[in-house]
Amino acid sequence: MAHIQVHRDDISLDSPTLVEGLPGVGLVGKIAADHLVDAYDMEYYAAVHCDGLPEIAVYADDDPEVRPPVRLYADADRNLLVLQSDAPVSPSGTTDFAGCIVGWFEENDVTPIYLSGRPAEKDGVPDVYGVSTGDGAAMLDEANVDPPSENGAITGPTGALVHESQRVGLTSIGLIVEADQQFPDPEAARALLQTAISPLADFEVDTEALVEQAEEIGQAKAKLAEQLQENQEESTSARPLGMYQ
């Protein structure tokens, strides 16, 4: 049965903000989410057992405990949740996956921040735009995050999450950043963290490690980026709406 299995009832959260890190263009969401988990030594909080996810066991170096491919991490001090993913969502399972996740957000009064990369030739610091559902527009305005400069659509699993949030009236934010379509893009992930996630979640984010380890991060995540290019239906992205008309 699809559900979110919380392992840490001792962690107290009050209407938390969540940063979503599903893999997509430039792996911007995954890089940003992984950085938050590492930078704040966040606690493994819950396992995501939703339809559309592969039944695989994930393990890490120097840790004998296996975990599911999609997990939630928590930081009580910052009232923060992060959705960390080590595997893409099946294209045929995105609707069920989105319903499972967003339903849990509703039950636990979670405000999600969804992350997408928009393929672009960047010039300087990547531009970041915001879209919203529910009462999210006021949050974007307060954080000085601009709306998009063109019509477009968020695709893939993250698009399904935004769609489901809009359908049920959940307050959420969707952030879109210019990103490299072919390679992991730590620079775009850094722009998301500094320009939008930090003011929206109301805490400072140290992103120096993303700059110092950019090459290492790129190499570590290049294989996943290559796999997503081969099957773009599993990959989240934001693209001009003209591509779908």
Q: Structural class, from helix and strand content?
A: alpha/beta
Number of helices: 7
CATH class: Alpha Beta
Average pLDDT, rounded to a whole number, is: 89
User: Tell me about the biggest sheet?
Assistant: 8 strands, mixed
- Provide the domain count: 1
Would you give the CATH topology? Rossmann fold
Descriptive labels:
Proteasome_assmbl_chaperone_2; globular; 34% helix; alpha/beta; 3-isopropylmalate dehydratase; two-stranded antiparallel ribbon; 245 residues; eight-stranded mixed beta sheet; Rossmann fold; PSMG2_sf
Protein model, in words:
- With 245 residues, the chain is an alpha/beta fold.
- It has a single domain (3-244), classed as PAC-like subunit (Rossmann fold).
- The protein has seven helices and twelve strands.
- The chain has helices at residues 28-39, 94-107, 136-142, 156-168, 186-201, 208-212, 214-230; strands at 3-6, 17-21, 43-49, 58-60, 63-67, 70-75, 80-85, 111-119, 128-133, 152-155, 172-179, 237-240.
- The chain has an eight-stranded mixed beta sheet with strand order 1-3-6-7-2-8-11-9, sandwiched between helices. A two-stranded antiparallel ribbon has the order 4-5.
- Strand 4 and strand 5 form a beta hairpin.
- The N and C termini lie far apart (37 Å).
- The model has no long low-confidence stretch (mean pLDDT 89).
